[in-house]
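Sample pair:
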Amino acid sequence: MDKLFMCLDVSLKDYKVCLMIGEGNRIGKRFALKNNVDSSQVLFDRIVETVWKIKAEKVFIGYESTSVYGWHLQYFLADAPKLAPFSPTLICFNPAVIESHKKSLGDLPKNDHMDAFAIADRLRGRLPISISADFRYLALQRLTRHRFHIVECIVRKKDCYLSNLFLKCRGLCQTDVFSNNFGAVATGLPESMEHFEQVADMPLDELVAWLVEKGREHFDNPVETAIKPHATLKSSYLIHASMYHTLNLALLSCFENLKSLEKQNKAIEKYIRDQVKFFEREYLCLTSVKGIGEVITGGLIAEIAGNSRFEDDNALAKLASIY
């Protein structure tokens, strides 16, 4: 049975195409098309024309994983009515696999056309399992990965906040003055007091009253709680007057960003909880494990994207880097 191997080297604006038959001979010249719908229709016509020309009965399409550049093209090819009669098999290669294969081909020129040739040549060898796309997983994956991005931003912003807080008053970072440096009282202190010397010189009963107001009377012993920041601020270094406004502005900016990110994170997590329940079997299985909540379950389901993608348990364990 004759086979047609087509490979794509996809970039932001275009993609390079190389056509090859089973013996390894290239068909026609390598060519490039724009990464849009109109050019992809041209690609379909070229594939169909070549299939009839060489009387191929099977089409293999290979490409490297290149961020999101090939995302639309991949599913556009999978759903193309013109290609359906030839049962196209789409294979997405890890770039490391193609790079290793290129080394085995000798000293090749470094350009996108040769990358396309290397992918086509690798496509003729032993192939990984081809899995059809399930857009349910893709939709959930966009949500869970965006949440991961937001959480990373929150971590970086907290580090930035603490760095500026240390510059303003190192004692608040060196000792456990507050149980949470991002709580209402801890963040309200630098926000309300432009100069920490104000707090250090403040009578203890006034500081207690301020803490009770900010803490909404949640402190069991407000006097004992007030003694810690009072003593810490008295023992902290004084900073130059020109730094006061700068650090206050930086702290306020960090805190406002944190509030915005936390709000976005809650909205995304709520949507993940709603979506993950549609995967009933996986949802019930994962949430039965102690310590795995709905949001983490959503992330696991989205990344695993169905057990059919894996040959066995060991293959799934490799995805998690535990095998």
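Residues 146-259 form one domain.
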